Amino acid sequence: MSFRIRILILLSCLTAPLLSAQKIDKGFEALKVFNFATAKDIFEKNLRKDTVGAAFGMANYYLVENTPFFQIDSSLNWYQMAQLTFTTQDEKSKAKLAEFGINEIILTQFKNKLQTAAFNRSRQIHTLHAYNWFILTFSDAPEVPQAISQRDQIAFDSTEIKKTVTAWKEFMNTYPKSSLMPQAEEKYETLLYHSLTAENTPEVFQEFISQHPENRWVAQAQDSLYMLATHLQNLSAYENFIQNFPENRNIEKAWIQLYHLSIDFSPESYQRFLKKYPNYPDIKSLKIEDEAANRILIEIRKDALYGFADTTGTEIIACTYASVDPFINGIARVYRDGKYRFLLKTGKEIEAPGFEDAEAFQEGLAIVKQGGKFGVINAWGEKIMDCKYKEIGSYREGLAVVGIGEFFGYLDTRGNIAIPAKFESAEAFYNGLALVKSDEKYGYIDRDGKIAIPCAFDWAEGFQNRQLARVKKNDKFGIINTLGETLLPCEYDLIQAQFADSLALVVKDGKFGFIKPDGTIAIPIQYDYTALIQLAPGFRNGNARVEQNKKLGLINTAGETLLPIRYPDVQYFSDGLAGVKIMGKWGFADAADKLIIKTLYENVYPFQYGWARVMKAGKWTYINPAGQEYNGELWDEAEDFTPNTAIVKKDNYFGLLSSDGTQLLKAEWDEIIRHKPNLFLIKHNGRMAWYSYLKQDFIWKE
Q1: For residues 292 and 285, is the Cβ–Cβ distance under 8 A?
Q2: What are the φ and ψ backbone dihedral angles of 410, each rounded to 5 degrees?
Q3: What's the rounded mean pLDDT across residues 555-578?
Q4: For residue 271, what is the enclosing H or E element?
């Protein structure tokens, strides 16, 4: 309020003049007829005598729109003088004022008119300053909320043009009660998030999370951090994430992925996981799964449908399947409703659609068939590769052979083509190398698909968990190592496929000897390679059959004679005795070449777990090292003891013997199948049962 106005109010209060209603009325009459100069002159001359009326008149004079002297600021000042002076008047003076139309109601109405005019002017100017002036000047005006809204919108739009974190922060600090605050906060937090994480590295996301925990983008930052830190999707990536970011909201997801990568439902995988990750959050459930994985389950049948029971005969998985296969690595292939599925030992099926055909899981992946084409799923039922290929081999060392058109290549464990299909044939990887055929020749490639050993052989085999492989050129065998180096040149008629006692049989020009794994000759090529040797070639339990001049004997791995080469035929040493044939009959001799068991038998096999299978009168029985026969009974067919039992057959029925000399099951069953060393599936008259050697009783019968 100006000093002049304050003085006029003070003078009015001191002199308490009588109202000159007539003069003031003339001023208002002049206003009505637009005689503005007269009105202003009258009001100004009466300011000291009639401050309220004159000031009110001046307020009206300056509020006449569409005139050169329309001034809201001046009108406001004169109104404030009139209002303040009015409040100092006594009741008698107020009554006089009321006679020519000045009272509280009129003053209030004018104030409202003034506020409306001021608001309209602010809207016309439409600037922050204009709206701020109105809001501060007329704080109680009903238009203030609109003015605030308009002001905030202008400030918001201006800030949005700037598009800086600082600008949005300033807006929020300046207008904390704005209705646009939620949008401003969102803009600020979004811009802050993108500016601070522009480098797109785990470090910047983690720093953002720690410094701005209330930001609405923290969840997105945590997800981005998870994706970046685990993009390799391997064990190491998830292990590091769990260790470095334990508060991240994706920590459970990381544990699940680590679990999926580690567990293939085999007992071994559970044991490895429990040992390696003792802090796994759901260790209780894991131990329950581990117990289930270690459980031996046997197929059972009810009403022509199959399920599984444990070794006590207790049904564990209900009989709802048309057929079931044994569990392999904790997963069984089952058949129901015309589709193959996969079943866990917990009784839960792997979540995947049924398939026309399916193979057992290898390295956590299974080859499945749908629509006549093959694809790949993992042990969690997730589709790794659509069923679109004519042929896919089992996975080994993370790669699987795939047939595309007339050629073969390799898939990785994510279903991607790792090595293009350009080979005429291809086999699984062993020791980092795979056998392939190109231009009618065989060679080897590495995991990158590069030729590691040139395709120069007429035939070859994979390295198959060893450091050497047999190859052929010009119909002769040789041996190479994984470096492609020749250990034995291709000049041999035959090389035994497997090493036994670290030696393998080699044949050249009708003679045989033995080589070491490095390809060097261990025992000279000097023995006759005949039909008798072919029946049981190579070493077994440290001794091998050899022949010279139609006589056989035994040698050890050093090439030393264990049994003289003087017999028409011999068997391997076992339990200190070797089968020898004399005059068309078999007996057993010791290491001193002394006949211990007389030559009474038509055929014999080496001792196994204390018993040797022997043929007598066209039938089979067993004898122990002392020459005592097994309970005197003879069978049409018999197998070696393995280790405590042997399955025998008589008159087309099967029985089961114990190595202690007792007959566990008489030969009266249609079929006996060894499921485990001490567990047998029995079939008879279309029914099935399970027999346990350990309990020496049936544990389940249909």
Answers
A1: no
A2: -140, 140
A3: 97
A4: helix 267-276
Q: Which two tokens stand for residue 261?
A: 């990568």
Query: Which amino acid is located at 39 in the chain?
Result: A
Instruction: Determine contact, residues 28/20, Cβ cutoff 8 Å.
Output: no
Task: State residue 22's pLDDT score.
Answer: 59
pTM for this predicted structure: 0.70
Under DSSP, the state recorded for 458 is: S
Mean of the per-residue pLDDT values of the chain = 92
Confidence of residue 15 (pLDDT cuts 50, 70, 90): very low
Q: Residues 437, 455: contact at Cβ < 8 Å?
A: yes
C-alpha–C-alpha distance, residues 570 and 78, integer Å: 137
Q: How many helices (H) and strands (E) does the chain have?
A: 18, 45
Please report which helix (H) or strand (E) contains residue 80, including its range. Answer: helix 72-88
Q: Of the candidates 75, 101, 104, which has an alpha carbon nearest to the alpha carbon of residue 87?
A: 104
Residue 271: name the closest of 330, 332, 342, 333 by CA. Answer: 330
- Distance CA(71)–CA(77), nearest Å, equals 10
Quote the CA–CA distance of 523 and 516 in Å, as a whole number: 9
**Spatial distance between the Cα atoms of 106 and 98, rounded to a whole number of angstroms:** 9
Is 669 exposed, middle or buried, given 0-12, 13-18 or 19+ CB atoms closer than 10 A?
buried
Q: Give pLDDT, residue 526.
A: 97
Q: Give the pair of three-digit tokens for residue 344.
A: 């866990």
Structure tokens at 409: 């290549």
Tokens matching residue 656: 């089961």
* Per-residue three-class SS string for 11-70: HHHHHCCCCCHHHHHHHHHHHHCCCHHHHHHHHHHCCCCCHHHHHHHHHHHCCCCCCCCC
Q: For residue 335, what are the CA distances in angstroms to 318, 356, 370, 447, 493?
A: 14, 10, 14, 36, 47
Start-to-end CA distance of the chain, whole Å, equals: 109
Residue 376's nearest CA partner among 327, 417, 423 is 417
- Tens of pLDDT, residues 468-506: 999 999 999 999 999 999 999 999 999 999 899 999 999
Give burial (CB, 10 Å; 0-12/13-18/19+) of 32: exposed
pLDDT band at 20 (very low <50, low <70, confident <90, very high): low
Q: Is the pLDDT of residue 271 over 60?
A: yes
Contacts of 628 (CB under 8 A, 6+ apart): none
SS3 of 163, please?
coil
Euclidean distance between CA atoms 366 and 384, whole angstroms = 10
State the pLDDT at residue 240. 96
- Of 213, 197, 214, 194, the closest CA to residue 205 belongs to 197
The number of residues in the chain equals 702
State pLDDT tens for residues 91-148.
888 888 887 788 999 999 999 999 999 999 999 999 999 999 999 999 999 999 999 9
Spell out the residues 6+ positions from residue 148 whose beta carbon is closer than 8 angstroms to its own: 131, 135, 178
Q: Is the pLDDT of residue 465 over 80?
A: no
Residue 552, token pair as written in the block: 């056989």
Structural domains in the chain, CATH included, are 3-125 (no CATH), 635-702 (2.40.10)
* Mean per-residue pLDDT, 317-324: 96
3-state SS of 242-266 is HHHCCCCCCHHHHHHHHHHHHCCCC
DSSP code string of 613-627: EEEETTEEEEE-TT-
Residue 376 identity (one-letter amino acid): V
